[in-house]
Design brief:
- There is one protein chain.
- The chain has about 290 residues and is an alpha/beta fold.
- It has ten helices and 13 strands.
- α1 crosses α7 (about 195-205), α2 (about 45-55) packs parallel to α4 and α4 (about 75-95) runs parallel beside α5 (about 125-140).
- It is globular.
- The relative contact order is 0.14.
């Protein structure tokens, strides 16, 4: 039987690297990971890559996710996040491949109380959120065989050229014994790149299409997340100083509900604290080696 061919863009990133490591362990699949060696904003390069790799599935993890950078470089943000996704979706349609597009809770405004489902209407307020929603729209319009996976507060170690994730930010303060501010009014759910990669692997064997939320269960503030990281890593949890990010006294909440996942019963995400404990064990084992 011919192996499935999977092309992962953004393979040097947080999720991309986790996916490459996970999927390459499966001998029934051919996995190709690319990063800056294929410019997804260039349609000719995308077409050439598709001819060479002949993917059955394209997983697009390539993204500019630094919110401040996106605000200051709107053209570049939309070029990579939206135009790049358009090119990949167009190539997937022409070759009858499935595309899995990674998205974010930042497509929501952050003012909705309670949990946000796949059926809630996005209203992004940031350049990053707007560019990622534009990417979703391109993928939905251009490729019938699409899956859009939204997650929140994704963390996990990756290449040195990456933007620092919150886990590393917190642990560096813990290691150095320095205090830092952690908002008590910013609410969502942390999700490790390792767990998100497991869900995406599950999707490869399914005939599901459409939008899926894929965040861990439970809810916490940034401050609670920071304290949990410090405690589990053996650092002083009091280094995380309570602060406020909102200007109007209201909470900033992008809490995702995995409604489609629960309706289809194709996967079950763990509680964020259990996921964090598992990730910390991986980090400690890696450090010991």
């Amino acid at each position: 039987m011919q192996k499935d061919s999977i092309w992962i863009t953004g393979a040097a990133g947080r999720l991309g690297s986790a996916l490459v490591q996970l999927l390459k362990s499966d001998m029934d699949q051919k996995v190709v990971g690319t990063d800056k060696d294929v410019d997804i904003t260039n349609m000719e390069e995308v077409d050439q890559a598709v001819k060479i790799y002949r993917p059955n599935v394209i997983i697009n993890c390539a993204s500019i996710s630094n919110a401040d950078f996106c605000e200051q470089n709107i053209v570049q943000a939309f070029k990579v996040n939206a135009l790049g996704s358009r090119n990949l979706a167009s190539a997937a349609r022409r070759t009858n491949a499935k595309i899995i597009q990674l998205s974010t809770d930042d497509i929501f405004e952050g003012k909705t109380e309670g949990r946000l489902t796949e059926f809630d209407i996005p209203e992004p307020k940031t350049a990053y959120g707007k560019s990622k929603l534009a990417a979703e729209n391109y993928v939905r319009e251009l490729c019938p065989k699409h899956l859009i996976v939204r997650s929140s507060w994704v963390y996990g170690a990756a290449g040195s050229n990456m933007q620092q994730d919150y886990f590393t930010f917190v642990t560096e303060h813990g290691k150095n014994g320095t205090q830092f501010h952690a908002p008590v009014d910013v609410i969502s759910t942390p999700t490790s790149a390792n767990e998100l990669a497991q869900f995406i692997r599950c999707l490869l064997d399914k005939t599901e299409y459409g939008i899926y939320h894929a965040s861990c269960e439970g809810v916490c503030t940034r401050h609670e997340f920071a304290q949990a990281i410090l405690s589990l890593m053996g650092y002083d949890a009091s280094l995380a100083i309570e602060s406020y990010a909102g200007k109007d006294g209201k909470q900033i909440s992008t809490l995702l509900e995995n409604l489609m996942m629960k309706m289809t019963e194709i996967y079950s995400m763990p509680h964020w604290m259990d996921d964090l404990k598992a990730y910390v064990e991986v980090i400690k084992h890696r450090t010991a080696d």
